[in-house]
Amino acid sequence: MNAPFTLHRRIYADLETRILSGDWAPGQRIPFEHELTSRYGCSRMTVNKAISELADRGLVTRRRRAGTFVAQPRAQSAVLAIPDLKAEVEARGQAYGYELLARRVREPGSDEEYDLASGKPLVELRCLHRADGAPLALERRIISLAVTPEAENADFEAQPPGGWLLDFAPWTEAEHRITAVACEARDARHLLLKPGAPCLSVERRTWRDGRPVTRVSQLFPGDRYDLVARFSPSRGEGR
Description:
Blueprint: H1 7-20, H2 33-40, H3 44-56, E1 60-63, E2 67-70, H4 85-91, E3 96-106, H5 111-117, E4 122-131, E5 134-144, H6 161-168, E6 173-182, H7 185-191, E7 198-208, E8 211-221
């Protein structure tokens, strides 16, 4: 059994999640140390240690007498947020549905999977997401037990793995690959499509502090989902 987070690591993880999720925007002041001390019921030294680690990673900047602020990004680019499909579906006023189709723990089978596994087995999952009863996404995912050993016993029948990972192992780096594809026959029956129907394929890899966490492929019927990225040019860039 893994040792639980120390309190300063819990505080660090909580603050990191608020920053990386965009809940706290660049330039926003985070709660003062005395406020966090009261919130977590701990010493100021514990809070200071967590904030110091955030500062070392460049996520926050400290200003004497003014407080601690979410750091401005060094460069701005088109950023595609990692979606929580359940939250997205419900935000659209639809009923979310989810089904775990298959689950197994296995050894890696390729060079890329060996890198993800880091010497441990992988959890492989196949899931189906629905919106108002209609298939929305067919998901294939592998999760590293080296980084998230708790995934081996997590109840993915009750909770989608994407939401579980966003809560339990927030990412610090992500890579997306988005393509338009023709639906293969093996996938068409789950998505209630005809083979060859147009689909949106989203492949994603995430890391936490440089260590690979998960690799996932999500297949969406082309007329049921869209992806939006909002961005602005950095100062000095051409318009």
